[in-house]
Specification:
The chain is an alpha/beta fold and 436 residues long. The chain is built from 14 helices and 16 strands. It has helices at residues 14-25, 27-34, 65-70, 87-96, 106-122, 139-146, 161-173, 177-186, 195-198, 201-215, 234-243, 304-323, 367-377, 406-416; strands at 4-10, 37-44, 61-62, 76-79, 100-103, 127-128, 152-158, 245-256, 259-270, 282-289, 293-300, 352-361, 382-388, 395-401, 404-405, 427-431. Strands 7, 8, 9, 10, 11, 12, 13, 14, 15 and 16 form a 10-stranded mixed sheet that branches. Strand 4 (76-79), helix 4 (87-96) and strand 5 form a beta-alpha-beta unit. The two termini are 47 Å apart.
């Protein structure tokens, strides 16, 4: 058995520092559990001057990632620089050198992962990426290995801590969107440019990876309907509460009629459901399998230590095989690439469900009947209607529909939003009914 496994880390930022810190501080613990030592053989970064507060010998540091990849002392290459390039090139070159790769790069895997998985297969190696979804929550390993005997029915995830913090503060403190975002930035929970978080792009990267693994389907990233949280107002938070719901940015993957229904959007969740109680920067993923039933995975979805913990878990999993000089042959997505389904992504217009509609209108007789008439023409029936703020403009009209299709909702709102009495685009939120 090989006693020392060399690890090379490309990218010494927040997650890189967390990863190296765990490898150093828990070195003896890992040895006790595995029988081998994980050695930090090389660390590559363009910034070699900043003090990260970690006792690394200067000889370990380099600004040449390619030298790290080629170093025979490095058995496992860890890519933590993020982005698309040069990350993709470094990963591909490591695979071509026959090295195993660990990464947390969700954006790259969601958009260009297939070419990297093919490169891994071609070079008889593999890629592990537990940290790419849910930070320190071991949800990918659970889906890929722990629940591999199940056919998955659905996945619903709160996968972005920034968006969840904002919506939680709007709900708990009565803040508006801008105020909650500013507070999140002040506390370091949101970037100066929070676009990927509040527009749902980050969550879409994660559900693309998770759905591919769970359902065995290639998910083209540009096929995912994505909607962010900027349009959510305090009015919606209050109406949701009155109706018995909580609003969360929800990443959804559901298997229906041999197609994958996938989306990211703010949605109404029943207050009684476990996901409704996930607040602040925490993430949670609710997975339903045909034999296991409902399972829930909860924890911190980002940060130096939780994400570093997930990275090291992948390193250990691979190193167990390397130490025995055998092949780490767990398929990255849980299926051999040739076993992936040749099925499509369900057209968003086919999605069915009940919807929350919030319209801002002038206060004028006949407005409600005109809007209801248009909905009726599109064969959309209503379960309830709430109108408040009489005498003030704009006036909010809130409607909850019976089951209908996304196509019918879109067609109706296209007409409604052109009415001269409607003052801004209508907000339509899916009311989740698959959360059993």
């Amino acid at each position: 058995m090989k006693e020392h496994i060399g690890v090379g880390v490309i990218g010494f930022g927040t997650v890189g520092v967390g990863t190296v810190k765990i490898l150093l501080e828990n070195r003896d613990l890992i040895h006790r559990r595995t029988g081998f030592y994980l050695d930090v053989a090389r660390v590559a970064d363009i910034d070699l001057e900043t003090d990260r507060g970690i006792p690394l010998d200067a000889s370990v540091m380099t600004d040449d990632a390619r030298a790290l990849i080629a170093d025979p002392a490095v058995d496992i290459v860890v890519e933590l620089i993020g982005g698309y390039e040069p990350a993709a090139t470094f990963i591909r070159e490591a695979l071509e050198h026959g090295k195993y790769v660990v990464t947390a790069n969700k954006a790259l895997l969601a958009t260009r992962g297939w070419e990297l998985f093919e490169a891994a297969e071609k070079n008889n190696t593999s890629i592990a990426f537990e940290a790419s979804v849910g930070g320190g929550i071991p949800v990918l390993r659970s889906v890929r290995e722990g629940l591999c005997a199940n056919r998955f029915r659905s996945i619903h995830g709160i996968l972005n801590g920034t968006a969840n913090y904002i919506l939680s503060r709007m709900d708990a403190a009565g803040m508006d969107f801008e105020g909650a975002l500013k507070e999140a930035q002040q506390k370091g929970y949101a970037e100066a440019d929070p676009t990927f978080d509040i527009e749902g792009i980050d969550a879409a990267h994660k559900i693309a990876i998770l759905s591919s693994m769970a359902f065995g389907v290639r998910v083209p990233f540009d096929a995912i309907p994505i909607k962010g949280i900027k349009e959510i107002s305090q009015l919606d938070i209050l109406h949701a509460r009155e109706l018995g719901f909580v609003i969360k940015l929800l990443a959804t993957g559901v298997w229906r009629e041999n197609e994958l229904e996938i989306r990211v959007a703010p949605a109404m969740i029943p207050q009684s459901h476990m996901l409704a109680k996930v607040n602040g920067v925490y993430n949670a993923v609710h997975v339903i399998g045909d034999f296991v039933g409902s399972t829930l995975y909860y924890g911190k979805g980002a940060g130096m230590n939780p994400t570093g913990s997930a990275v090291v878990s992948d390193i250990v999993a691979i190193a167990r095989q390397v130490a025995k000089e055998s092949t780490y042959d767990v398929p990255p997505l849980g299926y051999p690439l040739k076993a992936f389904r040749e099925t499509g992504i369900r057209d968003a217009s086919k999605v069915t469900g009940t919807y929350y509609l919030r319209m801002m209108t002038v206060d004028r007789p006949g407005v409600l009947s005109k809007i209801s008439g248009i909905l009726g023409e599109k064969k959309i029936s209503l379960a309830s209607v709430i109108q408040k703020g009489k005498g003030e403009e704009p006036v909010a009209i809130v409607m909850v529909t019976h089951e209908t299709t996304q196509k019918q909702i879109d067609e109706a709102l296209e007409v409604i939003d052109r009415l001269d009495v409607v003052m801004e685009p209508t907000l339509a939120l899916h009311i989740e009914t698959d959360l059993k």
